[in-house]
Amino acid sequence: MDFERIGQTGETGQSDEPERIDAFESELRQAMERRPAPPSLKSRILQQRSTRRTARVQSYTVWWQRIAASVLLAGVIAGGYGWRQVEDRRKGERAAQQVLTALRITNHALNDMNRRLVARNRDEQ
């Protein structure tokens, strides 16, 4: 449809405004005319709604799974770090026990050596 300025004259010099208004009104009536909905409209609308709802639920599910995986991963990392701390402390305690045992053995060996030296010195005098 050609929308020209109102009051503009055509090539004949006469206004064709009434024809345009009639054509516009006719087109408007046609566009605004009540028509029955297609039989498949309701099923298509319900299908689209179901599809959107399913997509939304899947989206929420994916986000919750990601959050759960992140929390689980953080827990595993924190647990591994804590376990390593405990293991390092146990190794340190075991090493300290070994050092103390070695010092006791050395102390006994030195005491035994001192007794022998003292006994030898007495025998020589």
Could you walk me through the main structural features you see in this protein, from its secondary elements to its overall organization?
- This protein has 125 residues and is mainly α.
- It has a domain at 1-30.
- The protein is 80% helix and 0% strand.
- The chain is built from two helices and no strands.
- The protein has helices at residues 17-32, 41-124.
N- to C-terminal distance: 139 Å
Name the overall outline: rod-shaped
Question: In terms of quaternary structure, what is this?
Answer: single chain
Poorly predicted regions = none
Mean pLDDT: 87
Q: What is the element string, with H for helices and E for strands?
A: HH
Number of helices: 2
Strand residues, percent: under 5%
Structural class: mainly alpha
- Computed over alpha carbons, the radius of gyration is 49 Å
Instruction: Assign a percent range to the helix content.
Output: over 70%
Largest sheet: none
Number of strands: 0
Concise overview:
The protein has a domain at 1-30. The chain is an all-alpha fold.
Task: Describe how the helices and strands are arranged.
Blueprint lengths: L16 H16 L8 H84 L1
Summary keywords:
rod-shaped; mainly alpha; 125 residues
